[in-house]
């Protein structure tokens, strides 16, 4: 499955949902945001929101520090 993640084409296994993508990318349970085709997806919707080939995703991981 080809996805565009943070502007870069990526080959990924067949991922059914945004939650599958988060697991595949190893995103932490807290401090991550995903935008799918220009729309921010609430974390509660990740398990229901499907993915299709050529979807554009922006993935952001929050970083703490001082």
TrEMBL record:
Which Pfam families did the record assign?
ThiS (PF02597)
Superkingdom classification of source: Bacteria
Q: Which Gene3D superfamilies match?
A: 3.10.20.30
Record InterPro entries:
Beta-grasp_dom_sf, Mopterin_synth/thiamin_S_b, Thi_S, ThiS/MoaD-like
NCBIfam families per the UniProt record, alphabetical? thiS
Q: What is this protein called?
A: Sulfur carrier protein ThiS
The organism encoding this protein is Mesoterricola sediminis
